[in-house]
Amino acid sequence: MKKITLLTFLLIGSLVFSQELVTNGDFETGMADPWFGNAANVVDQGGNFLNQANVMSANPGQPFLVNLSQNVDLTNGVTYEMSFDAFTDSATGSRTIVAGLGQNAAPFAALVETLTITSTLQTFTFQFTINYGDGVGDRVIFDMAEETGFIFIDNVSVTEVMTTCNNGVQDGDETGVDCGGSVCEPCITLPGVPAPTPPARDAASVFSIFSNAYTNQPNVVFGAFNVGTQDITNIQVDSDDVTQVTLIQPDPQFLLVDWGTIVDNTSMTHFHMDYWIDTNLTTGLIANPAWSNHVGDVGETSSFGLTNPVSTFGDWVSIDVPLSTFDFGNNSNNQQRDALRQFVLTLAGADTGSRTIFLDNIYLHNNTTLSTNEFEIAQIQAFPNPTKGSWEINSINRTIESIEVFDILGKNVLSLTPNATEVSIDASALITGIYLARVTSQEGTQTLRLVKN
């Protein structure tokens, strides 16, 4: 078992604690469950139930051979406080035990303390910040085989340490709930409008791994590697599903999307992806998409990627390019895609801290020609753009039912219901900047990027 020793420290300031994660920590059920291990042995000591173990043979260097554990659910990067009462009998006098938090399966990484107990009951309190990832489940650990003698354990508790950055309220000098200010991570600004709606392509002409517009490949799993912390979640922006990806340390960082089987996509000729990033985190930021081919499904045999420097922030960016333009990878000259298994997005730049990117409409297609209706929908235009006074919105033979204009923070600044093919939007009262207009007709919704000078 990997041993990492942490220093015990006192609580300071206004830290508060969340709900108890340990079940039956006081053993008052009179049974060990859900505790497990060969040291699980609940006894009644003068009306008080506790766990009693007696090590008859010492095993130096192998304290885990006598163990008491309970599975708990912990999160990587979060700090937890563990406390418990422990003592030995007068005949033993004193002895050591190992206590902490760790993985409940291989490789059994753990954060532990080695402590000395005596015949006088002591309360021990430690704080551990989980740093071994979320790939394996967690447990509470008591390892006792290092020395012989009795060990009595009672009132075991594990709780998340709550601070101004994770207590669910806006306090301290935060600029948002649990974010911003001088201590917490910067706040994440969400896209104010959904990504542009994809055209209605025939199902046979699209291989989709994430989009509301098409049928996605089954069993798609989003993950990451080469990151200290990851937060990948599905959110909704105006009823449209969007994947929010936050990756923290080191650099570069990789989002990995796997659908569990190889798929022949030789007929697909083009790649599409929509992404949205709030702020220019660093000069030289890239978001490079790539596809991984696995002939025989025994690992990557080739890959092909696209160099994609990020220059637009606070707005949706649509990439729609021929696969022939992809310019790097492993044996990538012919963009082999007869056994595609994974999609990889690389985020990199000078800043190696936290990066958040929003993704939508990730798919391959064979560039099927748009229908007449789809072409006309796509012809909704704004001019002049940029403007100092007003934008004229024009649609070819399509009635514009509504227009909603949002600033880059997602605030609705204008709403119109013209029911006309030509609409004028007065921009004179708007400040200089970038705006997004969501234009809706019976045939669908289109998002336009508007610039006010």
Automatic annotation (TrEMBL):
Entry keywords, A to Z: Hydrolase, Signal
Pfam family, one: CBM_4_9
InterPro entries: CenC_carb-bd, Galactose-bd-like_sf, Secre_tail
Domain CBM-cenC positions: 20-137
Keyword Glycoprotein: no
SUPFAM superfamilies for the chain: Galactose-binding domain-like
Leader sequence segment: 1-18
Cross-referenced Gene3D superfamilies: Galactose-binding domain-like
Presence of the UniProt keyword Hydrolase in the record: yes
Domain Secretion system C-terminal sorting residues, every copy: 383-448
NCBIfam families, A to Z: Por_Secre_tail (TIGR04183)
Descriptive protein name: T9SS type A sorting domain-containing protein
Source species of the chain: Winogradskyella immobilis
